[in-house]
Amino acid sequence: GAVVSQHPSWVICKSGTSVKIECRSLDFQATTMFWYRQFPKQSLMLMATSNEGSKATYEQGVEKDKFLINHASLTLSTLTVTSAHPEDSSFYICSAQLRDTQYFGPGTRLTVL
Amino acid sequence: RKEVEQDPGPFNVPEGATVAFNCTYSNSASQSFFWYRQDCRKEPKLLMSVYSSGNEDGRFTAQLNRASQYISLLIRDSKLSDSATYLCVVSGGSYIPTFGRGTSLIVHP
Questions:
Q1: pLDDT tens digits, residue range B1-33?
Q2: B 46-65: CB under 8 A from A
Q3: Residue A72 pLDDT
Q4: Which of A6, B21, B68, B72 has the greatest number of C-beta atoms within 10 Å?
Protein backbone atom coordinates (compact mmCIF):
# COMPACT_ATOMS: atom_id res chain seq x y z
CA GLY A 1 0.00 0.00 0.00
CA ALA A 2 0.82 3.72 0.05
CA VAL A 3 2.02 4.00 -3.52
CA VAL A 4 2.63 7.37 -5.15
CA SER A 5 3.20 7.82 -8.85
CA GLN A 6 4.63 10.73 -10.77
CA HIS A 7 4.40 11.51 -14.44
CA PRO A 8 6.44 12.07 -16.47
CA SER A 9 9.53 10.43 -15.03
CA TRP A 10 11.74 12.65 -17.16
CA VAL A 11 11.24 15.53 -19.54
CA ILE A 12 13.44 17.63 -21.76
CA CYS A 13 12.06 20.93 -22.94
CA LYS A 14 13.12 24.14 -24.57
CA SER A 15 13.65 27.31 -22.60
CA GLY A 16 10.45 29.31 -22.28
CA THR A 17 8.04 26.40 -22.41
CA SER A 18 5.87 25.17 -19.55
CA VAL A 19 6.01 21.70 -18.07
CA LYS A 20 3.32 19.99 -16.03
CA ILE A 21 4.18 17.24 -13.55
CA GLU A 22 1.50 15.04 -12.03
CA CYS A 23 1.61 13.39 -8.63
CA ARG A 24 -0.95 10.73 -7.77
CA SER A 25 -1.61 8.71 -4.65
CA LEU A 26 -2.73 5.38 -6.08
CA ASP A 27 -4.21 3.54 -3.15
CA PHE A 28 -4.99 6.22 -0.60
CA GLN A 29 -6.40 9.69 -0.37
CA ALA A 30 -4.03 12.50 0.46
CA THR A 31 -5.35 15.79 1.73
CA THR A 32 -1.81 17.09 1.73
CA MET A 33 0.95 16.62 -0.78
CA PHE A 34 4.36 18.19 -0.89
CA TRP A 35 6.59 19.24 -3.75
CA TYR A 36 10.36 19.13 -3.46
CA ARG A 37 13.29 19.97 -5.66
CA GLN A 38 16.69 18.35 -5.42
CA PHE A 39 19.83 19.50 -7.18
CA PRO A 40 22.69 17.05 -7.67
CA LYS A 41 24.42 16.08 -4.45
CA GLN A 42 22.20 18.37 -2.43
CA SER A 43 19.40 17.71 0.01
CA LEU A 44 15.70 17.82 -0.72
CA MET A 45 14.29 21.32 -0.67
CA LEU A 46 10.62 21.75 0.12
CA MET A 47 9.03 24.02 -2.45
CA ALA A 48 5.41 24.04 -1.40
CA THR A 49 2.65 22.30 0.49
CA SER A 50 -0.31 21.37 -1.65
CA ASN A 51 -3.68 21.18 0.09
CA GLU A 52 -6.71 19.69 -1.61
CA GLY A 53 -9.29 22.33 -2.34
CA SER A 54 -7.22 25.30 -1.28
CA LYS A 55 -4.23 27.33 -2.38
CA ALA A 56 -0.78 25.89 -2.00
CA THR A 57 1.55 27.23 0.65
CA TYR A 58 4.92 28.16 -0.82
CA GLU A 59 8.24 28.17 0.97
CA GLN A 60 10.23 31.36 1.14
CA GLY A 61 12.02 32.09 -2.09
CA VAL A 62 9.77 29.93 -4.26
CA GLU A 63 7.86 31.95 -6.85
CA LYS A 64 4.22 30.94 -6.81
CA ASP A 65 3.62 32.41 -10.27
CA LYS A 66 6.41 30.33 -11.72
CA PHE A 67 5.60 27.07 -9.96
CA LEU A 68 1.85 26.64 -10.23
CA ILE A 69 0.35 24.00 -7.99
CA ASN A 70 -3.13 22.59 -8.31
CA HIS A 71 -4.51 19.96 -5.92
CA ALA A 72 -7.79 19.26 -7.62
CA SER A 73 -8.65 15.99 -5.93
CA LEU A 74 -7.64 13.86 -2.98
CA THR A 75 -5.42 11.76 -5.22
CA LEU A 76 -3.90 14.27 -7.63
CA SER A 77 -1.65 17.29 -7.36
CA THR A 78 0.05 18.95 -10.30
CA LEU A 79 3.08 21.20 -10.48
CA THR A 80 3.49 23.37 -13.56
CA VAL A 81 6.86 24.96 -14.17
CA THR A 82 6.00 27.98 -16.28
CA SER A 83 8.44 29.56 -18.72
CA ALA A 84 11.12 27.10 -17.75
CA HIS A 85 14.75 28.13 -17.92
CA PRO A 86 17.93 26.07 -17.70
CA GLU A 87 18.34 26.93 -14.02
CA ASP A 88 15.01 25.13 -13.38
CA SER A 89 16.61 21.87 -14.44
CA SER A 90 16.39 19.64 -11.42
CA PHE A 91 14.85 16.52 -9.89
CA TYR A 92 11.31 17.28 -8.78
CA ILE A 93 9.79 14.92 -6.24
CA CYS A 94 6.34 14.88 -4.71
CA SER A 95 5.17 13.20 -1.57
CA ALA A 96 1.70 12.37 -0.34
CA GLN A 97 0.90 12.31 3.31
CA LEU A 98 -0.87 9.38 4.91
CA ARG A 99 -1.49 10.15 8.57
CA ASP A 100 1.94 11.44 9.65
CA THR A 101 4.07 9.60 7.10
CA GLN A 102 5.33 10.83 3.74
CA TYR A 103 5.32 8.54 0.74
CA PHE A 104 7.32 9.74 -2.21
CA GLY A 105 6.74 9.56 -5.90
CA PRO A 106 9.60 8.32 -8.08
CA GLY A 107 10.51 11.85 -9.14
CA THR A 108 10.62 13.76 -12.40
CA ARG A 109 13.92 14.73 -13.89
CA LEU A 110 13.52 18.01 -15.76
CA THR A 111 16.13 19.23 -18.20
CA VAL A 112 15.61 22.63 -19.78
CA LEU A 113 17.73 23.33 -22.83
CA ARG B 1 20.88 26.49 14.00
CA LYS B 2 19.28 24.21 11.45
CA GLU B 3 16.07 22.49 12.47
CA VAL B 4 17.35 19.02 11.67
CA GLU B 5 21.06 18.29 11.56
CA GLN B 6 22.91 15.26 10.34
CA ASP B 7 26.57 14.48 9.82
CA PRO B 8 26.84 14.31 6.01
CA GLY B 9 29.65 11.72 6.17
CA PRO B 10 30.49 9.79 4.17
CA PHE B 11 30.71 6.88 6.54
CA ASN B 12 32.95 4.36 4.86
CA VAL B 13 32.64 0.92 6.46
CA PRO B 14 33.50 -2.66 5.53
CA GLU B 15 30.86 -5.30 4.97
CA GLY B 16 29.69 -6.79 8.22
CA ALA B 17 30.42 -3.69 10.27
CA THR B 18 28.00 -2.01 12.61
CA VAL B 19 27.44 1.67 11.94
CA ALA B 20 25.34 4.29 13.71
CA PHE B 21 24.05 7.69 12.65
CA ASN B 22 22.59 10.41 14.78
CA CYS B 23 20.25 13.21 13.88
CA THR B 24 19.50 16.17 16.13
CA TYR B 25 16.40 18.32 15.95
CA SER B 26 15.74 21.74 17.42
CA ASN B 27 11.96 21.82 17.79
CA SER B 28 11.06 20.25 21.11
CA ALA B 29 7.41 20.07 19.99
CA SER B 30 8.28 17.61 17.20
CA GLN B 31 6.02 14.59 17.25
CA SER B 32 6.90 12.29 14.39
CA PHE B 33 10.29 10.93 13.45
CA PHE B 34 11.41 8.86 10.52
CA TRP B 35 14.43 7.48 8.74
CA TYR B 36 14.36 7.39 4.95
CA ARG B 37 16.86 5.92 2.56
CA GLN B 38 17.68 7.61 -0.72
CA ASP B 39 19.69 5.95 -3.46
CA CYS B 40 21.50 8.03 -6.04
CA ARG B 41 19.08 9.69 -8.48
CA LYS B 42 16.07 8.05 -6.84
CA GLU B 43 13.32 9.17 -4.52
CA PRO B 44 13.52 8.70 -0.73
CA LYS B 45 11.97 5.50 0.54
CA LEU B 46 10.67 5.07 4.05
CA LEU B 47 13.03 2.91 6.06
CA MET B 48 11.35 3.06 9.43
CA SER B 49 9.36 5.20 11.79
CA VAL B 50 10.96 6.04 15.12
CA TYR B 51 8.79 5.56 18.17
CA SER B 52 9.40 6.65 21.73
CA SER B 53 9.99 3.03 22.63
CA GLY B 54 12.43 2.56 19.77
CA ASN B 55 11.93 0.46 16.69
CA GLU B 56 13.76 -2.55 15.32
CA ASP B 57 13.45 -4.10 11.89
CA GLY B 58 15.93 -6.85 11.16
CA ARG B 59 19.40 -5.33 11.09
CA PHE B 60 18.10 -1.81 11.61
CA THR B 61 17.36 -0.23 14.98
CA ALA B 62 16.07 3.28 15.50
CA GLN B 63 15.94 5.11 18.80
CA LEU B 64 14.48 8.40 19.97
CA ASN B 65 15.93 10.48 22.78
CA ARG B 66 13.49 13.29 23.50
CA ALA B 67 15.50 14.73 26.37
CA SER B 68 18.53 15.30 24.19
CA GLN B 69 16.44 15.81 21.04
CA TYR B 70 18.04 13.31 18.76
CA ILE B 71 17.20 10.15 16.92
CA SER B 72 19.61 7.44 15.93
CA LEU B 73 19.84 4.68 13.38
CA LEU B 74 21.96 1.59 13.96
CA ILE B 75 22.75 -0.78 11.13
CA ARG B 76 24.23 -4.14 12.06
CA ASP B 77 26.06 -6.52 9.74
CA SER B 78 26.27 -3.94 6.95
CA LYS B 79 25.69 -5.14 3.40
CA LEU B 80 26.96 -3.62 0.18
CA SER B 81 23.35 -2.85 -0.67
CA ASP B 82 23.06 -0.63 2.40
CA SER B 83 25.17 1.98 0.63
CA ALA B 84 22.89 5.00 0.28
CA THR B 85 22.07 8.34 1.84
CA TYR B 86 20.03 8.12 5.02
CA LEU B 87 17.66 11.00 5.65
CA CYS B 88 16.29 11.96 9.02
CA VAL B 89 12.79 13.45 8.91
CA VAL B 90 11.06 15.24 11.75
CA SER B 91 7.60 16.74 11.81
CA GLY B 92 5.47 18.56 14.34
CA GLY B 93 1.78 18.99 14.90
CA SER B 94 1.17 20.31 11.41
CA TYR B 95 2.97 17.28 9.97
CA ILE B 96 5.02 19.39 7.59
CA PRO B 97 8.18 17.34 7.35
CA THR B 98 11.63 18.76 7.89
CA PHE B 99 14.46 16.86 6.31
CA GLY B 100 18.04 16.60 7.38
CA ARG B 101 20.67 16.89 4.67
CA GLY B 102 21.31 13.18 4.86
CA THR B 103 24.19 10.97 5.89
CA SER B 104 26.05 9.14 3.18
CA LEU B 105 26.97 5.52 3.87
CA ILE B 106 29.41 3.57 1.74
CA VAL B 107 29.81 -0.12 2.50
CA HIS B 108 32.84 -1.66 0.82
CA PRO B 109 33.87 -5.29 0.35
A1: 578 999 999 999 999 999 999 999 998 888 889
A2: 46, 49
A3: 82
A4: B21
**Residue B89 contacts by C-beta under 8 Å, 6 or more apart in sequence?**
A102, B4, B33, B34, B35, B36, B97, B98, B99, B100
Consecutive H or E run containing B44: strand B44-49
- In whole angstroms, give the CA distance from residue A108 to residue A90: 8
Chain pair A-B, CB pairs under 8 angstroms = 43
The verdict on B44 touching A (C-beta cutoff 8 Å) is yes
Omega of the bond leading into B10 within 30 degrees of 0 (cis): yes
Query: Which H or E element spans position A12?
Result: strand A10-13
- The phi, psi pair for A19, rounded to 5°, reads -130, 130
CA distance A14 to A35: 22
Nearest CA among B80, B90, B61 for reference residue B17: B80
Model confidence at A42, pLDDT cuts 50, 70, 90, reads: confident
Q: Least CB-CB distance to B43: which of A49, A101, A104? A: A104
B32–A93: do the CB atoms touch at under 8 Å?
no
- How many Å apart are CA A97 and CA B97, to the nearest integer? 10
pLDDT value of residue A99? 84
Residue type, A86: P
